[in-house]
Write the structure tokens for this entry.
Amino acid sequence: MQSVIPAAKDPGTPPHVVIVGGGFGGLEAAKHLDALPVRVTLVDARNHHLFQPLLYQVATAGLSPSDIAIPIRSVLRKRRRVRTLLDRVSRIDLEGREVHLENGPALRYDYLILAAGARTNYFGNDRWAEHALGLKSVEDALAIRRRVLLSYEEAERGLEPDELRRKLTFVVIGGGPTGVEVAGAIAELARRVLAADYHNIDPNASRVVLVEAAPQILGGFDPALSEAARRDLEKLGVEVRTGAPVRDITAEGVHLDGELLRAGVVVWGAGVSASPLADTLGVPQDRAGRVIVNRDCSIPGHPEAWAIGDIARFDREDGQPLPGVSPVAMQQARAVARNVGRRMAGQQTEPFEYYDKGMMATIGRTHAVAQSHGVKMTGMLAWLAWLFIHLWYLVGFKNRVFVLLNWIWSYVMFRRGARLITGEQPAGRGA
């Protein structure tokens, strides 16, 4: 039986707020709660905050992990009311107001903010994970980078033509921003960066295929921007397949209706589902496992607990859920922090209202698409806007400087300095 860290029991003890997750939502909540007379405990299984929108840059050797990650303790070092625990949450007992940890005593809370994020969703085909790499963590990004670079190393040794074509075929599944950005970056890496590094093969012969089941890529964007993104991808050499649902993924490649795309590397960017922690709550969830929250982001039946970000389903007035993007999580975090203060003061909470700042996606080195409040941008202008916004939201001045310098270097010299093959050594290779 685990011991329990008690919550506040008397008026002289500040209320205890437990935050699960150190992503965009969790960190934003911790920063704003530091202004209230509370004790805050933030729990995360990793010691770092990850800027997920730039993970694809790590996966395609554009950036190193340290450029887009920063220790959580470093971010919160000046927040004296906040303590950080490195541990994995095993389950949450809403009735008992306890957060159970894998390696430490359970935490008893007065208020709970669940910001545990999401995981890769293979839509019931979990066996595909063996052959199709997701992109949700640094480990995922490094695994993709390793497989992409190893494909060229193996091709350089000399392979039969059919096997060579397979090794240099890269299939990206999912035509959302992640899939579009990964496909464009791999094509650029192959044709403009690696072309001078290999002498026995022609990296320009690489084949990059973007597969999307819907009729168009970037489905949430204006159709004109979606078409512009498609044209930009095709200029980079990416084959864009729309209206092409995936039927199976095996060691040989991706099976479509009546066609097998033989591939050396398959990247999955087609969807996510909520953290499995949501399953331990015993409250209503949607098909993606997200907690269906009230208008103030509280968990139904538990006004002292809130769920925000990718683990929560918050519907707009038209019934459509808010997208799983960082501005949603950060705005929800600020709203929930204010509502914690209202509950402490005995006041009614206020409903959450999302301010949509727009969407954007980058395609290669100098092209992007963006839309915001009726304004649509493409090409270099959209790319510069994308660059500025992503740098602005990077946590830590050091990260901004390094990312900017790396991008300038890559832009001017067509080089990517993070082309390291790490992890398990290939068979037959010595130390």
Q: What stands out?
A: The chain is about 30% helix and 25% strand. The radius of gyration is 23 Å. Residues 138-156 form the longest helix (19 residues). The longest strand covers residues 39-44.
